[in-house]
Design brief:
- By secondary structure, this protein is an alpha/beta fold.
- It folds into two domains: 16-254, 3-Layer(aba) Sandwich (Aspartate Aminotransferase, domain 2); 256-368, Aspartate Aminotransferase, domain 1 (Alpha-Beta Complex), CATH 3.90.1150.
- The chain is 35% helix and 15% strand.
- The chain has eleven helices and 13 strands.
- It has helices at 16-28, 35-48, 59-69, 87-94, 139-149, 200-209, 242-252, 255-273, 302-311, 337-345, 357-368; strands at residues 52-56, 77-81, 98-102, 124-130, 152-156, 164-165, 168-169, 176-180, 193-197, 279-281, 288-289, 295-299, 346-349.
- Strand 4 (124-130), helix 5 (139-149) and strand 5 (152-156) form a beta-alpha-beta unit.
- It is globular, with a radius of gyration of 21 Å.
- The two termini are 26 Å apart.
- Bound molecules: pyridoxal-5'-phosphate (PLP).
- Pyridoxal-5'-phosphate binds next to helix 3 and helix 4.
Length: 371
């Protein structure tokens, strides 16, 4: 009997080199924040085209440090999107600030730049945008609003490592960009994140704040055993350790191949599903290159589609539902019509480096067979 096929929506992309490099750290006698973290930061700068980088223990920590660097404080407002994972708005709450949700574009799931300006008040400090599925937001329009109202732009690029917008790498566009190296992301550290910035001072401050506020680089050694320092600002325990960094360094070397495979799978899905009744593909403009971390589309009768896929061993999912519905942010907003529609329709198909062409054809055939 042929075993039923099982196609996961995600799979961890872990290289053999990651096993070897992490093992060398485990055997080295030093596993804290050290030379491997520095190596990851400089390798990431080279591979991603970002400028100043501070590695941290999660994308969420990077977002919190970005809020601090962006000057977001108690009572401030940050205009953001609800089509994301809760980490995005949690970072705003961590600063005792208030997330203000703008609508999304129905055909990208990204924040709609046209819906930002009327939500700006004298308390607005920053715009925190998310590149849903790895497809870059309309950054030029977002920057234009930010310039006009003197707001800081922070990008949540948890899905978008390797994405490009109008020739420039995501991470080189705005003052502060946050990446996630969590288990199922393109670059896996187990858990980890990166704060990328265009400003050396932001980088220096982030390096302090990721370790209780202590400036590790300028500590003065003391015969007493503990180095001398003066902490001037509240910091956190957000540093990355060398075990996670080693996994990241090795997996980062495969980023090009990982992106290439995700993009190829996305291209196959787009070609095959463009004319399937009941499916609407999301936008794919020529001026930007998605990281294709997810393959999200809009589907009529989504629950029926998911039932059909699951019956065939294919794991479709919404991945993340709108977050404004949570009481921690004050409950569901009723002024986000595109998000309402997106919420009814969006669904993501399997996309990962473990999928063969035959698996992709199997998913396509299942959908073309109807639901
Ligand atoms: C859009 C978005 N932002 C932030 C995060 C948080 O990243 P991390 O899990 O590395 O803290 C995630 C995690 O999946 C995410 O999807």
């Amino acid at each position: 009997m042929v075993a039923p096929r099982r196609i996961d929506i995600f799979r961890v992309t872990m290289s053999e080199e990651a096993v070897a490099l992490a093992s060398s750290v485990l055997r080295s006698g030093y596993v804290g924040e050290g030379p491997m973290v520095a190596r990851l930061e400089s390798a990431f700068a080279q591979v991603s085209g970002t400028q100043w980088n501070a590695a941290v223990n999660s994308g969420t920590s990077a977002l919190h440090l970005a809020m601090i660097a962006g000057g977001v404080g108690s009572g401030d407002e940050v205009i953001t999107t609800a089509q994301t994972m809760m980490a995005t708005s949690h970072a705003i709450l961590m600063q005792r600030a208030v997330p203000v949700f703008a609508d999304v574009q129905l055909h990208t799931g990204n924040i709609d730049p046209q819906d930002i300006e009327h939500r700006i008040t004298e308390r607005t400090r920053a715009l925190l945008v998310v590149h849903w599925a790895g497809y870059p937001c309309d950054m030029e329009e977002i920057h234009a609003v930010a310039r006009k109202h003197k707001l800081v732009v922070v990008e949540d690029a948890a899905h978008a490592v390797g994405a490009r917008y109008r020739g420039a790498a995501v991470g080189s566009l705005s003052p502060l960009t946050c990446f996630s190296f969590q288990a199922i992301k393109h670059v896996c550290c187990g858990d980890g994140g990166m704060l990328s910035t265009l400003n050396a001072e932001h980088r220096e401050r982030a390096a302090r704040l990721r370790w209780f506020g202590i400036d590790r680089a300028r500590r003065v050694p003391s015969i007493l055993g503990e180095a001398e320092w003066n902490v001037t600002e509240l910091g956190y325990k957000y540093q990355m350790n060398d075990i996670a960094a080693a996994i990241g360094v090795a997996n980062l070397a495969h980023l090009g191949a990982t992106l290439g495979r995700h993009r190829e799978i996305a291209r196959r899905y787009r070609q095959a599903l463009a004319s399937v009744p009941g499916i609407t593909l999301l936008d794919s403009k020529d001026d930007r290159e998605s990281a294709c971390w997810l393959f999200t589309m809009l589907a009529e009768r989504r629950v029926d589609l998911l039932r059909m896929l699951h019956a065939k061993g294919i794991a479709g999912s919404v991945v993340h539902m709108r977050i404004d519905t949570n009481d921690v942010y004050g409950g569901r907003r009723d002024d986000l019509p595109n998000l309402d529609r997106f919420t009814e329709l969006h669904v993501s198909l399997p996309i990962h480096t473990g999928l063969s062409d035959d698996d992709v054809d199997y998913v396509i055939a299942a959908i073309k067979g109807g639901w």
